[in-house]
Structure formats: structure tokens, C-alpha cells
Amino acid sequence: MKIKNIAATVLISAATALGSVFLYSQFKGKPDAGVPVLAKVPVNYVSYSGPSASAGPADFEEAAGIASPATVHIRTKTRPKEISNNMPHQPFGDLFGDNDPFSQFFGHGGGRYYIPGQQAAGSGVLVSDDGYIVTCNHVVDGADTVTVTLNNRDTYTARVIGRDPNTDLALLKIHASHLPYIIFGNSDDVKVGQWVLAVGYPLNLETTVTAGIVSAKSRDIGVNDDGVNPVESFIQTDAAVNPGNSGGALVNTEGQLIGITSAIASPTGSYAGYAYAIPVNLVKKAVNDLLKYGTVQRAFLGVSLPNLENPAYRASLTNPMPEKGVQIMGVEPGGGAAAAGMKAGDVILSVNGVDVNTEPELMELIAGYRPGDRVNVTFLRGGDKESLNITLRNKNGNTGIVRTTILDELGANFQTLSPAQASKLGISGGVQVQNIGSGIIREQTDMQPGFIITKVGNYPVTDVASLRSAIEKQSGNVQVEGIYPDQDGVFYYGLNNIKNPSR
């Protein structure tokens, strides 16, 4: 019986095996109806690399770990300041001079008021291991004392190495060594949509890190009124930024610095969706210039650009603006563009091979060069593409190194009146004050743009050179005399301690 059972089992197993082989031979090579044959699908998969395509956002831990120790807290103190208001000419002043007994009635020497001392706070970024710190100019502008607290809570008194109101940047120095610092990235490589981190000390909190994306580039929002020739070409991000973040770091996911946080767009003054950072390539240029020359060497192309933000200007246009490039409205006499042969109406397409389509893009690009640098400008003229090599010049119309003068400390642009303008106003000459920005005039007076300086102390002023000479001859406090073209009378402003301003 045992032998029969074993034989039966073997026969059944053999039959089952033969049946399996037969069935496999019948269905071999035929795909299941529910699985598509990929070889026959007429499409291509784009950069598909498996399950990682559905992964979440980048990990910010490494970038935060790099940027946080190198981001510092800045606190400033400003002493009370005396402000000189505009004082009309006193009827008895010429008779009595400084001993005018009627001054108590007419305000000669008494047209002043005080602004109380202030305290403020912001952020900064260590860019070297020996204590150089980049921050925003508006964080330290006018401060008498600047204190820096590191991430480890060590505190130092900082020295202001230099400021550039036009880019809203400042360079500080603390006496320390072996400090953590951030590596500069390349803001030209920044792409809309990439992840970024904003690091700073908002609302006087400890180090705070927020994340967002780059939502736009080359934004001009008209916020920088500290510069007399401002450059605005901000990186826009939706990372949460609040008061106190100014001067802090905007970094990519590798922890590289790509911008210095400068402003927010908000109806309340606090975070409402958009923040703006100064591109790091402008930061690098400013830092190097401040260290080498003491002031930023600003290059100018020498063209006037359209003000598309002005509704009146847009309404005056008879022809539509070009879809690509930047159409120039004119060339400035004595500028590099005029010398090279550019003309009003030319449409600039690129500078040194870099395309430009907006005024902020063009301004940012030119601001990266120094006077004396040559750039190749490609442009359209009458539908034809042309190119010129242009030597950039400084604000004085030459290629020399620009040094800071007392006029720069005043913080305004100055324009000599033409003989025709002076004759129309009934004066022998003068200098008109334009674009008042950060400086002595704003801090110590309520002078308005358009004021025409005719006298400084006892020295008459007929042009910019005589204005500079008259200011330099003063030992301390001085009275500035002049007129407004649309107002009657002579006005006076007092400037205090001009040789050593507390700024």
C-alpha cells in the first residue's frame, strides 16, 4: 500500500508540472490587459527621476545653521538734535547785525526746535571673520552710538566704516576675530520661484528665520529717499519680514548670501506679504569700494530714462514703449553715452551681453561698474541693431576717483544756476538744492528742494565751486542764505558743527 501511495503522489505531481509548463507556453509574451506597453506610448517623460519628484520643499536646516550665527543684532542711539527752520529776512537785521534787538520778535537765531533722542534696532550680516558687518544705511544713519550683539550674545561697539545712501548700504567694523561669517553668493543667478531664507532680529526678538520664495527681481518701489541718486533693483520675496529685519540676510538654500533685507511693502508697516532685499552683487561692489576708497565709486552711463511710474509721463507718450529693452529719453552733455554717439530714442537691449528690459535692471547693471570702465552697449536705432563701446564716467563727468567732500556730507545734489535763470530771479548767481537725501541738510534743517543758496556766512555763492569753498572756510556753525523761486523774501538756515557732524 505504501508503494502504491507513493507512486500515485509522484504521478499527480508530474501531471501538475506538465500542465503548468503547457499553460506558461500559451501565455508567454502576452502583456496583462491592465498594464500599458510603454514602448508603444508616443510621449516622453520630462526629467522624471522616480519617487523624489513628489518630495516636499527643500530642507532649510543647513542654510539656517550657516546664516543664523553670522547675522547680528544692531542697536543705535541718537542724541537730541536741533533743527533750523526756514526764517524769512528780518527787517532790522541789516541795521543791527548779530545784536538785533528785534530778534525775539522776528526769530533771527531763534527759529529752531529740537528732536528728542531716539533709539532704534535692526540687523546686520558678518562678511568676514575679523568683524566687518554689512547692514542698511537707514539702520545706522544719524546714529551717535552703534552697538552690535552677536548670535552668542557677545556685545561690541561698532565703528561706521562708510555709508552709501544711494544703495541703502553701510559697512561697520567691530574689534573681534575668528567670527562666523556668510559667503557671498551671486544675485545674477537668483531665479524667480527659488526658495530663500530671511534671517534677522524682527521686533527685537532673538535670531529669527523665515522661509519663502523669490517672487520677483529688479523691483523699483521708490522707497529709498535717502539717496540723491538712488539705485533700486530689489529682490522681492514672500518670506515674512518685519521691522528689525532691515540689514539682515537673505540666503539661498546653500546658506549663501544673495541679498540684504531692506524694505517691506505694507499698509501697516508690518509684514503683509512682500519684502525686498538689495542684491548681493551690489553689496559686494559697495563693500569693496568703501574699504578701498572710503566712498562708493558710482558709474553713470549718461542717459535720461523714462519715468514709467509717473501717470502724467505715461499719458504724454505718443508712441508705445518697446516690448524689449529700455528706450532712453536723452543723453546728458559731457556724459559717456553722448561722447560715444548715443541719441535720444535709442533702445538699449543689452550691456556687455546681459539683456536689460527695465530701468531698474539697467541701473543695477551699470551700478556694478566703476568710472573708467568700458561697456559694450547694444541698442536699436530706427529698427537697426547697433553697438557702441562706452566709457562710463562719474557724477563730475570724468573718470577719476571720487572722494567724499563736505558737499557729500550735506546730502543733496547742487546745480549752478544759468545766467538766464539768475537774471530772471534778479540775483547775480546761485546754486539750487536738488534731491535732498541723507545728510546734514535733512538732519539739521527743514530746507526744501528748489532752495537757491546765494550766501554762506559772509561769502557769496554763485556756483557749485564757490559753495564748496565757502563751506570749507567755515570753522563750525554757519548760516546759509537764499531764496525760493516761488516765494517772496530771503530765507536762512543754520548748519551746526559742519566740520564734524554727529552722524
Average predicted confidence as pLDDT = 83
In order across it, which strands form the biggest sheet? 8-7-1-5-6-10-9
CATH topology grouping of the largest domain:
Thrombin, subunit H
Radius of gyration: 33 Å
Helix and strand content put the structural class at: alpha+beta
Please report the number of helical segments: 13
Number of E-state strands: 29
Write the CATH architecture name of the largest domain. Beta Barrel
Residue share in helix: 10-25%
How many domains, in number, for the residues? 3
Distance between the termini: 115 Å
Q: How large a portion of the residues is in β-strands, by DSSP E?
A: 25-35%
CATH class of the largest domain: Mainly Beta
Give an account of the 3D structure.
- The protein is α+β, with helices and mostly antiparallel strands and 503 residues long.
- The chain is 21% helix and 29% strand.
- The protein contains 13 helices and 29 strands.
- The strands form six sheets. The protein has a seven-stranded antiparallel sheet with strand order 8-7-1-5-6-10-9.
- The longest helix has 26 residues, at 2-27.
- The chain is globular and about 70 Å long.
Task: List the defining traits of the structure above.
503 residues; alpha+beta; Thrombin, subunit H; Pdz3 Domain; 3 domains; 7-stranded antiparallel β-sheet; 13 helices; 29 strands; globular
